[in-house]
């Protein structure tokens, strides 16, 4: 038990200085030390007493969180006047200040500019209480519907795939480890393992043949797969959204992954670009689904994705069709899965990197494959670009020069070289802009990077300029949506840090912010994932919604979907800083969202989730996504 | 300031007066004497006194070996108090009632007080002088059962009686020796034979508490803290909550008005120890001349000695955990008529009605055999059932009979549940409740669902296509043709039809809610101290029952309607009838808030769960406490009776469900699995399955048939109450269903055994 804590509980009392301060505030000037001590003990005791009573009200209110109203009720049964006016649900509005050797907590009354209030759009009217019924269980079996939690939570899936020994009971240990050792066994065997683990996890479910999908699931599978590769774009969007959000797909995952891998195999041979794109979008949707953990199916999905990146030919008319966009998109998927699933045991990232590098270094590699390799590598992040791509710029430049300026061998080669060139420029420019010291000398660049040098130089200059511009632009496009009950709960940190000079605005707490990419660039033909804007609202636990508004400019289909905060996939792109450097004692830490772009992340899909400064309440989860932000340079944004 | 005791007395008188003055109120119940639990609690510690929080009890720590004498004293104390507050009328009435002679009340007040008078008592030799009494008490003759503290007149209004209550602590010992004493005892107990050790270890906690309080009382703050730090770690983990309260209490002043402290002082901590173990302890203490500890044991502990084998650690742990130790064995000896009432009132009209219904439907043959079986079943008189007229029950109206018929028809279609046939669960989620949903109830026929909210509102939804309609206004009603057949349809105002209605009236969060069995009324209890009765015909408030002056945590209608029970922060459960604005019975005895109240299916008993971690069963007829069930380690938040009335289940903040045999007053099962407070419990219609819903967002189903079968009850265990609980929670758990993020706060089996659950989505 909490034996270590108990002695503390016994002795915790308010500091005597507080008593002095309070006495002064009501006009009692000189208070003796002894009186202070006696008072503080008494006050501490009473506070504890009231807190205990307040807990009672919390229990009967069937809550886990103590609220100010509980304290009021506790005071009321003690025949003490409750504290009127302090109904704020957000935070306790005390501020901390120190100076001249004194420390003070005070209630800050800010001057309010009326025009601010008048001009603020009215908050949405809170929704009325309503009643909704669903089946929690049907004859003992919990149906997999959105209202119910996913049959196997993601953590469990992850635990099963990464640490099978823990999930499996002693008797099955061997089997589990063998299957892990075999690595790429068939989906079937893996499925078996999974179902066993699952059965162990749930307590006494009705026995059922777990390999067979229910009729509904079979129908669903058929509908979804048909829609995904069918001709109707609207249907496809719906199907993909279903894959990306439905919590009950766990059991169908092996089917989907086989469908994708087989589909890619067949369609690469047939050079069916459209279908390959559709399949990659399915992969993307699966990865977006917050309830699925794909680790066990990577052995099927990665080859399929890599095929779409580096295959020599992906379409019937390589000179006309835009297969480059597919390669870009698949490369992004690859990078995303590397970041999500790469561990020290499976080494996905290093294995993938090796694969790309090897075929890139090969002299005979075609331009298409070459393009794929470079795209795949550059999506892996600025570090990879710096160490693997930039050193080879000279050689690659020479090769491009040979094709472009040399005798015309084939149109296809020329187009390929052209694309490789722009790809290299795009990715390298932002990295170089970050790493290279300022004077951008054309000649120096030529010396350093060979044929590509001068072009690179102008790109870098542009990138630097854009970075500066970007910062302002993002600021301008900030969209603030105030929601009815949107508030930020921040628990009192108590321990005072430095005195924040910034004052938190009390009336208007912008609860949501939108990050917009300045250029909603979508590749032309394949319409890979549309630009997404995350409208994110954090609130005091009452309701916290997070919406992904997908605006796709190419396909003109706009889908709105609710997604739980993106899994911690990529490196944080959005960094959060609190004003006053860390904890502002006694006041709500001012939150600033600083978008830090990674050194050279031009035109890449970056997803990041930044946990806000954890203000102790877990309900505050901030997920931010930025997609296709072609924004080199740092952009700063503050919600205030 | 409100004092429970006064309320008790007051309520008593007022209802008496009402009876006298009105004359028309001729309910049988009314005439029966209202009897509180005060004198019933074993050695005569006046529990009812120790109640009202915020203020304290009115003195009267009467410790008298004889019951009648004590009653007398209580009366005197009450008289004094009434006099002091110029309630002369009441004084007269009380005097008349009690048949006291006039002379005893007029001895002049003692020095301190003003109006009060010394407790001139008929029974004690030395009555009179308060001061001498006070000093006598504070001298504290060790082991003096004959000390009789007459009620002391209050000195002013500032809770003077506490001093008396506390004075027993003034016996001084050398504060430095306390740890030594305690350690000595600890060493001794550690060195005794294993079989005795577990039993004797029970002494630690009460001893620790009393020694600590003694130190605090005598202003040895530093020593007290040291003592606490040194030994608090040794105590059983289930006392952590109380220890936390104790740890905050470091000054004598704090002891005033602290309920926990008063509970410790006014109620003896009950321990059950076998004779052998007790002898060991006694011998040890006497050898060592360890008077300090011996005094505490004599003064503050009640040791219930039994013959036979000492109990094992697990047996003890199962039963302990309550605020005042275990229940005494004789507290659970009263016979409880737990059988169900046969329903003769229904049977006869039922046949008629049934036949009518059958004739309408035109298939009488099919139903005949079933009806017979029903009839024969209810004809058999259950030997454990109370007499039909033990409690006057309301007569059935025609609509009730119709409902009964519906009920039986539905019941015939009921699914038989079992371990291989689990119920389906339909979950009603309250959306956008913003954490404000505090209570839910569903009507027996599952047509209406009501929610109580923290914003003081009560909302009623219809979950069937039938919308909720109000009765027309009086003016409109006068226009309709009262002779028409569909007059019941016509009185409803179609314009008001809606799926939900909101009832405004409370001024605080609504913590308890209950539909009447006939669905015409709804009860709600609130933080504002009232219970309100709402009409579901007009959707208006009909009555506000005032009596609890503090938050009312729970209320429930009797299964037969008319009566209802409520319990709240004032530690008293009250029995009411809907047509009386004063309670009919007050069930006092709990040492902390009454957190939940449930009627027994036969309406003759009321079960209350409390924050003192005990469950009490009260007899509605005479107000006696007939069962005290201990074993929970946290405040009890849910209770459920099995449909046959034989068993009870209870759930607490400790996340455990305990099963009880009411007839024997025994714990017969422990269901572990939940990780948070259990707010909802419900047996299936046939009692085969128990559903539990918890704050941990799960609904769990338990095989109660197996649980009840597994218990082997021989005569010995029945007599001693020492039961070995089978460790089979996992075998009994039939299913566990997690919601996304919705704590389960209500469960209900429909008549066809479909399980309905409800809770507010809590993102």
Largest sheet of chain A: 4 strands, antiparallel
Structural class of chain A: alpha+beta
**Looking at the chains present, what oligomeric state does this protein adopt?**
heterodimer
Neighbour order of strands in the largest sheet of chain A: 4-5-6-7
* Structural class by helix and strand composition of chain B: alpha+beta
Count, helices of chain B? 24
Overall mean pLDDT of chain A: 67
The rounded distance between the terminal residues' Cα atoms of chain B is 41 Å
Keywords for this entry:
heterodimer, A: alpha+beta, 22 helices, 46% helix, extended, disordered N terminus, B: 763 residues, alpha+beta, 24 helices, 31 strands, TAF6 (chain A)
Please outline what is shown here:
Chain A: Its main location: nucleus. The complex is a heterodimer of chains A (640) and B (763). By secondary structure, chain A is of the alpha+beta class.
Write structural notes for this entry:
The complex is a heterodimer of chains A (640) and B (763). With 640 residues, chain A is α+β, with helices and mostly antiparallel strands. In chain A, helix 15 (323-341) packs parallel to helix 17 (367-379) and helix 20 crosses helix 22 (453-476). The model of chain A is unreliable at 1-8, 164-209 and 475-640 (pLDDT under 50). Chain A has helices at residues 5-11, 16-25, 33-60, 68-77, 114-119, 154-162, 164-167, 173-182, 187-201, 215-229, 233-245, 253-269, 273-288, 298-310, 323-341, 348-361, 367-379, 382-389, 393-405, 411-435, 442-449, 453-476, and strands spanning 94-99, 102-107, 130-137, 512-514, 531-537, 546-551, 558-562, 574-578, 591-595, 606-608, 624-626, 635-637. Chain A has 22 helices and 12 strands. Chain B is α+β, with helices and mostly antiparallel strands and 763 residues long. In chain B, the strands form 9 sheets. In chain B, strands 4-5-6-9 form a 4-stranded antiparallel beta sheet, with no helix packed on it. Chain B has a 4-stranded antiparallel beta sheet with strand order 10-11-12-13, with no helix packed on it. Chain B starts with a helix and ends with a strand. Classes of the chains: A alpha+beta (640), B alpha+beta (763). Strand 3 (130-137) of chain A pairs antiparallel with strand 3 of chain B.
């Amino acid at each position: 038990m909490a034996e270590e804590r108990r002695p503390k509980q016994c002795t915790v009392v308010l500091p005597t200085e507080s008593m002095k301060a309070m006495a002064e505030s009501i006009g009692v000037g000189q208070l003796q030390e002894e009186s202070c001590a006696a008072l503080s003990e008494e006050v501490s005791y009473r506070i504890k007493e009231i807190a205990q009573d307040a807990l009672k009200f919390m229990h009967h209110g069937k809550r886990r969180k103590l609220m100010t109203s509980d304290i009021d009720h506790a005071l009321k049964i003690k025949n003490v006047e409750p504290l009127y006016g302090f109904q704020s649900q957000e935070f306790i509005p005390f501020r901390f200040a120190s100076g001249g050797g004194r420390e003070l907590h005070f209630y800050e009354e800010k001057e309010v500019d009326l025009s601010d209030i008048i001009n603020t759009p009215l908050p949405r009217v809170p929704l009325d209480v309503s009643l909704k019924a669903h089946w929690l269980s049907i004859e003992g079996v919990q149906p997999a519907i959105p209202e119910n939690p996913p049959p196997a939570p993601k953590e469990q899936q992850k635990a099963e795939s990464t640490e099978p020994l823990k999930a499996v009971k002693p008797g099955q240990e061997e089997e589990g480890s063998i299957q892990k050792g075999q690595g790429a066994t068939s989906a079937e065997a893996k499925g078996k393992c999974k179902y066993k683990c699952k059965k162990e996890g749930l307590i006494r479910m009705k026995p059922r043949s777990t390999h067979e999908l229910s009729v509904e699931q079979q129908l669903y599978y058929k509908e979804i797969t048909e829609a995904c590769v069918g001709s109707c774009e609207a249907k496809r969007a719906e199907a993909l959204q279903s894959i990306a959000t439905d919590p009950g797909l766990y059991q169908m995952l092996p089917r989907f992954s086989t469908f994708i891998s087989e589909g890619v195999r067949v369609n690469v041979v047939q050079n069916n670009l459209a279908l390959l794109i559709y399949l990659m979008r399915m992969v993307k949707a699966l990865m977006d689904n917050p309830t699925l953990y794909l680790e066990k199916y990577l052995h099927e999905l990665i080859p399929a994705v890599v095929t779409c990146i580096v295959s020599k030919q992906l379409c019937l008319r390589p000179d006309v069709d835009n297969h480059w966009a597919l390669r870009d998109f698949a490369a992004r998927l690859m990078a995303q899965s590397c970041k999500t699933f790469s561990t020290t045991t499976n080494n996905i990232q290093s294995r993938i990197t090796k694969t790309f590098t090897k075929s890139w270094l090969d002299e005979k590699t075609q331009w298409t494959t070459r393009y794929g390799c470079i795209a795949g590598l550059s999506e892996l992040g600025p570090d990879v670009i710096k160490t693997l791509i930039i050193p080879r710029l000279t050689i690659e430049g020479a090769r491009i020069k040979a094709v472009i300026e040399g005798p015309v061998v084939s149109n296809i080669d020329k187009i390929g070289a052209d694309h490789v060139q722009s790809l290299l420029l795009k990715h390298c420019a932002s990295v170089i802009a970050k790493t290279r010291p300022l004077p951008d000398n054309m000649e120096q660049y030529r010396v350093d990077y060979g044929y590509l040098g001068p072009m690179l130089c102008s790109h870098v200059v542009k990138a630097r300029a854009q970075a500066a511009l970007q910062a302002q632009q993002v600021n301008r496009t900030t969209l603030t949506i105030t929601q009815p009950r949107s508030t930020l709960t921040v628990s009192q940190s108590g321990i005072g840090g430095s005195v924040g000079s910034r004052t938190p605005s009390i009336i208007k707490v912008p609860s949501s912010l939108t990050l917009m990419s300045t250029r909603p660039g979508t590749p032309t033909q394949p319409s890979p994932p549309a630009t997404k804007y995350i409208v994110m609202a954090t609130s005091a636990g009452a309701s916290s919604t997070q919406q992904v508004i997908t605006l796709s400019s190419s396909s003109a289909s706009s889908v709105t979907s609710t997604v739980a905060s993106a899994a911690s996939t990529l490196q944080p792109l959005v960094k959060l800083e609190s004003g006053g450097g860390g904890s502002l004692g006694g006041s709500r830490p001012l939150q600033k969202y600083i978008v830090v772009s990674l050194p050279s992340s031009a035109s890449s899909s970056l997803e990041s989730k930044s946990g806000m400064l954890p203000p102790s309440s877990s309900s505050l989860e901030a997920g931010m996504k930025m997609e296709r932000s072609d924004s080199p340079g740092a952009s700063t944004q503050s919600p205030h | 300031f409100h004092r429970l005791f006064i309320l008790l007395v007051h309520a008593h008188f007022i209802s008496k007066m009402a009876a006298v003055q009105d004359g028309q109120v001729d309910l049988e119940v009314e005439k029966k004497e209202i009897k509180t639990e005060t004198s019933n609690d074993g050695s005569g510690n006046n529990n009812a006194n120790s109640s009202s929080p915020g203020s304290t009890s009115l003195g009267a720590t009467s410790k008298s070996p004889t019951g009648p004498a004590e009653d007398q004293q209580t009366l005197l104390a009450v008289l004094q108090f009434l006099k002091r507050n110029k309630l002369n009328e009441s004084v007269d009435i009380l005097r008349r009632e009690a048949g006291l002679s006039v002379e005893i009340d007029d001895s002049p007040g003692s020095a301190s007080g003003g109006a009060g008078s010394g407790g001139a008592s008929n029974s004690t030799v030395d009555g009179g002088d308060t001061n001498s009494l006070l000093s006598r008490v504070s001298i504290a003759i060790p082991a003096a059962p004959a000390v009789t503290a007459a009620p002391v007149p209050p000195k002013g209004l500032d809770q003077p009686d506490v001093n008396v209550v506390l004075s027993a602590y003034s016996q001084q010992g050398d504060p430095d020796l306390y740890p030594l004493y305690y350690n000595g005892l600890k060493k001794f107990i550690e060195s005794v034979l294993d079989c005795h050790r577990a039993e004797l270890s029970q002494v630690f906690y009460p001893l620790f508490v009393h020694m600590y309080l003694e130190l605090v009382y005598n202003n040895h703050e530093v020593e007290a803290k040291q003592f606490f730090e040194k030994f608090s770690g040794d105590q059983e983990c289930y006392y952590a909550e109380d220890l936390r309260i104790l740890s905050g209490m470091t000054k004598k002043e704090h002891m005033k008005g602290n309920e926990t402290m008063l509970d410790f002082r006014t109620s003896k901590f009950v321990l059950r120890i076998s004779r052998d173990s007790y002898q060991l302890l006694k011998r040890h203490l006497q050898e060592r001349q360890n008077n300090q500890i011996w005094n505490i044991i004599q003064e503050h502990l009640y040791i219930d000695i039994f013959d036979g084998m000492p109990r094992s650690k697990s047996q003890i742990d199962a039963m302990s955990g309550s605020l005042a130790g275990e229940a005494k064995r004789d507290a659970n000896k009263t016979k409880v008529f737990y059988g169900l009432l046969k329903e003769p009132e229904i049977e006869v009209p039922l046949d008629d009605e049934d036949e009518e219904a059958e004739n309408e439907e035109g298939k009488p043959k099919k139903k005949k055999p079933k009806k017979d079986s029903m009839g024969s079943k209810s004809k058999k008189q259950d030997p454990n059932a109370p007499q039909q007229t033990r409690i006057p029950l309301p007569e059935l109206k025609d609509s009730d009979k119709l409902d009964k018929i519906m009920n039986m028809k539905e019941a015939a279609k009921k699914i038989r549940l079992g371990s291989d046939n689990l119920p389906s669960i339909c979950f009603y989620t309250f959306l956008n409740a913003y954490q404000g949903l505090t209570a839910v109830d569903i009507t027996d026929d599952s047509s209406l669902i009501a929610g109580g909210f923290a914003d003081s509102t009560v909302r009623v939804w219809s979950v069937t296509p039938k919308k909720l309609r109000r009765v027309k206004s009086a003016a409109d009603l006068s226009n309709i043709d009262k002779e028409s057949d569909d007059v019941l349809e016509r009185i409803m105002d179609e314009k008001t039809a809606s799926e939900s209605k909101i009832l405004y009236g409370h001024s605080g969060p609504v913590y308890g809610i209950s539909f009447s069995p006939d669905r015409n009324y709804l009860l709600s209890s609130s933080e504002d101290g009232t219970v309100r009765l709402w009409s579901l015909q007009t959707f208006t408030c009909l009555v506000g029952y005032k009596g609890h002056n503090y938050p009312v945590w729970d209320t429930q209608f009797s299964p037969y309607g008319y009566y209802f029970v409520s319990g709240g922060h004032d530690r008293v459960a009250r029995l009411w009838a809907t047509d009386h604005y004063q309670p009919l019975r007050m069930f006092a005895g709990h040492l902390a808030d009454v957190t939940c109240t449930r009627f027994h299916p036969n309406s003759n008993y009321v079960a209350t769960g409390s924050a003192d971690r005990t469950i009490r069963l009260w007899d509605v007829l005479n107000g006696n406490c007939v069962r005290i069930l201990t074993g929970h380690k946290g405040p009890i938040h849910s209770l459920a009776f099995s449909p046959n009335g034989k068993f009870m289940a209870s759930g607490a903040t400790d996340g455990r469900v305990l099963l009880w045999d009411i007839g024997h007053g025994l714990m017969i099962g422990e269901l572990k699995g939940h990780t948070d407070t259990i707010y909802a419990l419900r047996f299936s219609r046939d009692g085969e399955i128990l559903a539990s819903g918890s704050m941990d967002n799960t609904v769990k189903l338990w095989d109660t048939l197996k649980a009840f079968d597994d218990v082997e009850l021989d005569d010995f265990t029945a007599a001693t109450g020492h039961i070995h609980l089978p460790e089979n929670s996992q075998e009994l758990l039939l299913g566990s269903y997690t919601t996304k993020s919705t704590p389960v706060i209500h469960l209900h089996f429909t008549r066809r055994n479909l399980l309905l659950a409800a809770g507010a989505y809590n993102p």
